[in-house]
Amino acid sequence: MSIEIANESGVNVDETSIVSAARFALDKMEVSPLAELSILLVTLEVMEDLHERWMDLPGPTDVMAFPMDELDSSRRPDAPDASPALLGDIVLCPAFAKDQAKTAGHGLMDELHLLTTHGVLHLLGYDHAEPAEEREMFGLQKRILGEFQAAVAAVDRRDAQRTADDRLLGTAGLDTVPAEEPPA
User: Fold this and answer.
1) DSSP label at 126?
2) Could you give the count of Cα atoms lying within 13 Å of 167 in the half-sphere of its Cβ?
């Protein structure tokens, strides 16, 4: 799965973490490994322009999703090998998300993970215009985010344990691999 990210927002964020959240959501939704996704982080001004141009709504917003191709799951068995399918673009506005994160009582990266997952679901055809659609999409978003956060926490615990183990081994003088003896 190819995920490209470009940060043109001027806000310093962990881009690798955003890509990880997108990849996790796509994997959970069983999207083809041939899929391609683009994530763009933009300024308030750029987001405002996109929001007005494409949604005919004033002011900036937090996330927009621009779907491209649909993955063709009904391909004929004798069709040539599949080519990568471009899912589309997710556009995030970290400056807008920062205020939302503060209001929600969590950090900017948590908000960007939420918005990335939200954008992925939009690219896959989910919407929240109607109450039933909103319950389905937001329920799925909450489940994916919860599983992502649990996976990240597990990796952090493993890394912390590894660091503690390495420190203990170093204290005991067991952290170095003995050099090979020269041939006699």
Assistant:
1) -
2) 6
